Amino acid sequence: MVFDNLYLKAEELMKLLKKAGLSISFAESLTGGMVASRLVDVPGSSEVLKGGVVSYTNEIKINVLGVSAATIKKHTEVSEECAEEMAKGVRKLTSSDISFSATGYAGDYEMSSDEMNGTVCFGFSYEDKCDTFTQHFEGLRDEVRKASVEFIYDTVISYLKEKYE
What we know:
Layout: H1 5-20, E1 24-28, H2 34-40, E2 49-54, H3 58-63, H4 69-75, H5 80-94, E3 98-104, E4 119-126, E5 129-136, H6 141-164
Parallel strand pairs: 1-2, 1-3
Antiparallel strand pairs: 3-4, 4-5
Helix pairs in contact: 1-6
């Protein structure tokens, strides 16, 4: 186990979720399960993590998470609209208190001129709200994916500190 920055953030997130008595779930596309996996690295995460869906294809986004095909057709799968429906869908599916989704363009392992690489849309479903965000991360594929995980952890940690501390 590597006790890196992501591990420390996952540990903090788990402790805050426990303290608040909340559960969490994830709908992941470009992160491919990394958000949930890094949280599972922390002992005791089963007390807060309800589950997750790796929705790498539109078929899974539509058939499992309930994303509207019309949303994808109109806005594409990398959009705040899709991210919102993913977050709401996984929250409903798992009956979690909060959920987070990520969909985007991770890019390649070589620098590319494709300006969409590094663009990630997120959905954060909590209480009766769903906030959406679009971020652009620089770097290669793994760097974009890790930055996405870090963004999710940081956002939920900030929310929990503001609301429950």
